[in-house]
Every structure is written in structure tokens, then in C-alpha cells.
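notes to self, project folder thing:

trying the whole complex as one job this time. last attempt i did each chain seperately and stitching them together was a nightmare. two parts in total, labels are on each line so i dont mix them up again. if this works i'll redo the older ones the same way
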Amino acid sequence: MPTSLVQNESILAIEVGAAVTRAVLFDVVEGQYRFVASGQAPSTAEAPFMDIGIGIREAVSSLQNVTGVTLLGKDRNLIAPSQADGSGVDAVVATISAGPAMRTVIVGLLSDVSVQSARHLAETTYTRVVDTLDLSDQRKPEQQLDGIVRSRPDLVILAGGTNDGASRSMLKILESVGLACYLMPADKRPMVLYAGNEKLEADVQELLGSYAGQLKISHNIRPSLDVEDLGPASAELASLVVNLRQRHLKGLEELNTWAGGNILPTTYAQGRMIRYLSRLYESTRGLLSVNIGASATSVAVGFADKTILKTYPEFGLGESLSGLLQYTDVESIMRWLPLDIAPNTLREYLYQKSLYPATLPATTDDYAIAQAISRQAMFLAVRSAQKDFPGNPYAPKDVMPPLDLIIAGGGAVGDGLSLGQGLLMLLDAVQPVGILPILIDQNNLLPLLGVAAARNNYLPVQVIDSGAFIGLGTVVSVVASANYGDQILRAKLTYSDGTDVRADVKFGGLEILPLPSGQSARLSLQPLQRADAGLGPGRSGTVTVTGGAMGVVIDARGRPLQFPSDPVRRRELIKKWHYTVGG
Amino acid sequence: MLAPVLHILPLTSIVRERVLPMAGKVNVNVNQKVSPTDVIAEARFAREHVLLDVARTFGVTTKAADKLIKVKEGDRLAESAIVAEAGGIIPRTVKAPRAGRVMVAGGGQVLMEVGDARIELKAGLSGTVIRVIPDRGALIRTTGALIQGVWGNGRVESGVMASLLEKPDEVLTADRLDVSMRGSVILGGHVRDLETLKVAGEMPVRGLILSSLNPALLQPAMQMRYPILVLDGLGAMPMNSVAYKLLTTNAKREVTVNAEFSDRYTNGRPEAIIPLNVPGEPDEPNDYEMFSVGRQVRMRRAPHVGMIGSIASLPAGLMKLDSGLRALAAEVKLENGASVLVPLVNLEVVG
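result (full assembly):
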């Protein structure tokens, strides 16, 4: 019998976000781990509170109200372990995404080798690259020094040199970094993560040990020219991030005590869970997880042998919204809107929301604007991440590769307003191709399961198997070159009782064929005009599909998504799409 | 639920911690009176560094070069001072390219810091030093009216306030500014064009207190040499009625505009302070409270953004909003008499 079930351990999982703090209770019900309930409260990392503990206790209080279980004592401290009267919990785990993006300097030898890998490593967490140093840097050594000092980094990521490879150039660069650290005030020195040539570890210790805020030495992320291995270094980086956050955020030390050190950056925990699931389900085409929150939008893709994790603070829906227009234009956001608003209204919205990230849309128009911004932020994040997906180099750059599954979470997707709205946001932003199921992580459990796995490896699987994620159903995305209104697909869904439902699908439309959760059916697809419905261009066939809250959704709006150029027609079409999914 | 507080107070005690970003020299003592532009602490730092590679210059090993280096850490060098010298028939030298200080000497190299720069930390308010923070700064206390804003361009100044605001939703344009306002702090409404900021700078004014600012002007506003304090938001917004009343009734008084950058993690917030001499010390305001019936609140988001109201009731449980979302909410009675349901996260207490 598994240890966990003998211990019957209840786990309180806490997620400290930039805008919202959640407290989630996992417990054993009928011999299996279940997601019991969650409570939430506004986060209190920022002014005027500046103590994450306040928001945590508010979230736990909210959880107490939902469950009726007393978790906090009269002194407002956590009751642990659980008591005979049913109060308290046995263990705590936590994830954190609150806090500013970490100013990061990337240092390597070659820009298209070690620097690129160091950048990939930085993207696994909440960083903002403020300077880069490599052999092609034309600056004088002292200018490089001053560059590092002026950029006031929280973190330096050092990579370079394959194992047994270049050492002289690396030593020179290490010397520069050491000098730069030395020149900074002792309390402002950055943390340094070295993940380069392993032969130089003693030199690194000597040159940087006394001058870095904290020095971590990890496995080489580029052990040879053609191999990138971010795994061990990203784990070290995750622990550095928590340490760094502990410097800045009051209350994190107490949470760490509650959690016995089981704290991870939210995005890392999400990536860890996706890696675990992709191995469990032996995903070959990839499991995509996208999480859109106030501090960042993160994208994790797990393949059987590789996981890619990308964190984009610049595409978060909080403070960074004021900078969103550095990455996109107003028109690209407006294209998602069913409303006719002035571009300036949208600009002002972005700035005002960045001042008050935790606020909520109270009107339908405000909600529509929020959703349009979320779509574009997610679209940008997924497109950026897609550049590093393994796969066919000849595949079109603006079309997603086929995937096995999509799991989406974060406030904007799982706000509970409508599952159809959540689905439509994913179809718009991710624009998947082929035939695949889509899940919504409405309670943002994925990262929490990722951190809980470190304590109890039965819990994540059992919680997922118990239906903690909402299955929206199966999506069939049709790639076709056609005109709006042209018929491009005939579909027939045959239920287990022999009855069927048919649809003639036109280009530019969405069709929904009902198929409840827990049921499967046979879907026959007959593409016209050489359309590709996931079986190959013009190829017909029959596949078994699973149901969900939305059933079988056929997305025939084109890949990439085609919009009419006339804004009035476009808005009408968007309204029609919203209506189709029940919005 | 806890509520953040926006301070708009006619009379309160104000205590502000003012610290340097690095260690430096503190120029004030406990109980000393300071004015907003007094430099209470300063720090010196090097603008840049110079790395002299002695080993490479002389073509010798680092060990050999170290023997030829004539300076040590901490030495202050004049321009052209000899840093290293190699003998021979024609002696060769490495000289300091600029005056500066030796930071490191060794490994065949000498690192110097050059180009002295100074950071001056201004008091930011008139008041009394109540505590000195060694090497960093001080805590300053004052009494007066306090009006907090949402955005500042990082500058501090004080002067007599001249009001150009006849109603809360007024737009401040360049043609409203005339030479008689030179040296004043201008109380204006919304600024939508660059010309207004430029004309204010040319006069020059001592500061602008605005209801709102066109977001397209954020970058130019950062370049202005006078403080710009935005009270209500970015975009076209009227001034909230509480700030409007308090500021317009205090026109012609001395006002300090501390338009410091907002910092979510240090509680730094741009603000205007009108010093008032009163007997005794009023209480300091709390930075957060609990939402409760009767509290005055300000809306932080559409559709009533910037409006002031008071909480009429706090319904239990999650309420369904017009957007369809469910959230803890308050029924708020606006000043125009209308009652609206507002999510608590969209409110801040005014007080």
C-alpha cells in the first residue's frame, strides 16, 4: 500500500500570485487524493500591505469558510499537523509568482550557442534580461564592467564552454563578472548561477565565491555543441528565485517554514508537472500548458523526451500591461474585440489596469476589452515559445505544430464566467491544428500539483484522475485555403447508441456537435477542397473522440485565423463565434 | 476584506523615510528642521571605470607585471600619475588616463574608478528629522494636508499653489499658462498635449498637480525638470472630488510636490503635502483598513473610475457583476445619488 495513503496526509497548497493568493486543500477521500476546495484573496505582496502573509491568511480563511475545516488557530497561525478534532493540515506546499521580474545579465561565450542556452534558462522563470555579455561584445572590458554594474542585476547567468572545451576565454569573462560584483555595494550584489564548462568550477568558486550575493554551480547547460540540457540548472535557478524573493518579500520566510522548504516558482512547478504528465502519457506530439496570470504568461510544452518552459513577464496581465504595446500594436489587440471602441480607449485601459492589476471587469464592455488583451498576450506568448518547439523545420512558422493535448489555466481563462469563452480564447490565442482534447484548469491546480509532487508523488495523478480539470471536449481544427462561406468539411458524429449528428462545415465558422463528458463517439471527417482536418490534406477518415463540457468543436476559421478586413463584418463574426460557444 | 487606503486628508501627521540607494553621508541630525529641497544625504559614486592591463602593455606575465605596479587599492591618482613602470634603456610607463581612485591592483591589471558623480537625496517635505538612518538617510515628520497620487516623474519641488481648475474635468492647455505663474505649483486638470508640458517647463513652474495625463506623454513627462504629479490616472479622467475640494480650497498656500516614482514594493508613492502648523500631533493614517459600511471609497476601474462614493452595504458572499463575474462586492452610493454594485478589489478607501 502506498505510504501516502497510510499517512492519510492532508495537504494545504498555497499559490502566491501577483494579484491573487489561493489556498487549496487536497485530502484523501475514499482512499484517493482529491481536490477538496479552494479559497482566495487579493495578494498582499505589494504596497500598502507588503507582507504576503496577510493575503495568505485571508485566502486560508476563505478556504475555512468553504470547507468548514478550521485551519488557523486563534493566534492566526496555521494548525499543523491535523488534530483529532479535524482541524489543521498535515503538510503545506507553495508556489510563488508575486514580485517584480528579476533583472538578469546573461553571460556566455558564443551568442548562438551558450548565450542562447543561457537565455533559454532565463526564460524558465520570471526574468527580464537587462544585459548580455559574450565574445562578440565590442565593448572594452571596462565598458562591459560598467554595463553590468549599471544594469543593477538581481541575477547573473553564466554559461559557456563545453565540458573539456574552452577555458581561457571563459576565465576572462568570469574575471569581468567577478570584478563587476566586487564593484557593487555588498547588499546589492547579484546572485550568480554558473552552468558552463564543469572543469572550471574551482576557478568559478575562487573568482566569484566572495563577491556574488550567492553563488550556485550547476551542470553545464551546453555540455556539447549539439546538446542543450537545462534540467539541473533550471532546478538550481528555481531555488535561487525563491531565495531572491525571500530577500524582497516579507512573509515568504514564514511560508517557507510552514512548507518545510517546499516552495517553487509557479512557472517552474507548472513545467515540472507538464514534464511528468508528458512522460506519463508518452506524448510524442507534445502536451501544451498555458497559464496566463498577472505576473506572467507561461507556456510549457512536454514531449516524451523533452520539456520546454517559457515565462513571459512582459505578457503578464498586471503591471507589465503598460509595456505591452512595445511588443504588439493596438490594432492587433482590437482585432479580437466585438466592440467598436477608439484605439485611445484601449491604450488608456492598458495603463489604468497596470496601475491596479488586481481589479476586475465589472461591465460586459470592460470584460470584452480584458478578454481581448488576454487573447493577444497569450497569442504573443505562444508564438514566442513556438520558435523553440522541436519539429519540422519546413513547417509554416505561423501555424502551430500538431499537439496531443492543451491544458490552460490562469485567471483570464478560468474565471468561471463561461467555459465556452475559455475555449474560444484558447482557440483564438493558441490556434491549435488537428484533432486534440482541451482541458481547463479552472482552479489553477497544475502548478500546485507540480510542487505537491515533490512531497507526495501519488497525489498529482490521483487528483487529475478524479477530474480536477474540466474536459472541454475535442477540438478539430481545419486548415484550408478557401473563401468565407465555402463548404470545406462534412462531419458525422456517431454515438454509442448508433444515432448520429451531421454538420456541413463552412470556412470561417465554428460548429459544435454535442458529446457529454465521459462519453466517446466515432467522428467521420470528409474534407473538401483539400482541407486538412488533422488526417492530412484532403484525407477522409474516422476517429474516436472523447466528450466534454463543450462536446466536439470544429474550428474552420483558418490557420492562421482569418479575419475579414472590414471591421464591421469582423465584429459581427466575432459576436457570432461568441454566440456559437454560448458566450 | 482588507482595503488599501488612498490618503487625501486635510490634516494628518506624515512620516516619511527618505534613504539613499547606496551608503553615503547623512547631512542632518535628529530634531533638525528641513525644507523639501534640502539635501539630507548624499553619496558619491564613480561614473565609470578604467581597466589598465599592465601585463599586456609591457608584454610580461601577470606575476612580473604585479611587481611593476606602483599603486595599491584605495590610492587616489591624478591624471597622468604613474601606475606602473618598467625599467630598461628606455623606461616605459603606464599612466592614469584620468584622475581617479584605484579599486583593484593585481593579476597584472589595475582597475580605477573615474568620473566622480553625486546622488543628492532631498527631504521631499518640510518637517522635522525624527530619526537618522546611519549612512542612508532619515525619517522626517511633518503635519499638514496630504494628497496621494498614482504617478510621478521622480522630481521634488515646492512653491505656492496656483489653481487653474474651475471644475474637476477641466483640461489644462498651454494657453492657460502665463508668466504670472512662474515659480508656482500649478493645479490643473487633464493634460493631453506635449505643448502644455513644454510651456510649463519654459516658464518655469515649480510643479504640476494634475488629475490625469495622456499616456502618450509619459516619456516626455519624465524628461521635464519640474515635478509632475498625477492624482487619478492615465487617460482622460476628472479629478476625484475629495482631492479637488481639498486642493482648490488650499490654493495660494505653499505646497510640496514630491512626484517620486511609484514603487509597489517599497510603498513609495507620489504625493502633495501642504504643511500646516497646528498644536499637537494628529495621528498618522493607516495604510490599510477593513472595508465597512459608511467608508468613503474611490473607484479604481470603469465604469465609474475616479468617482467617490460611500459604502452603503457589504452583501455576504460572492455577488454577480454586470460582466457576469462573481466577486465580493459592495453596494456603493455615489455622490450623484446613484447606487452601484462594485467588486471590492475595484475600490480603495479614501482617508
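what i see at first glance: The two ends of chain B are 17 Å apart (CA to CA).
need to look closer tmrw
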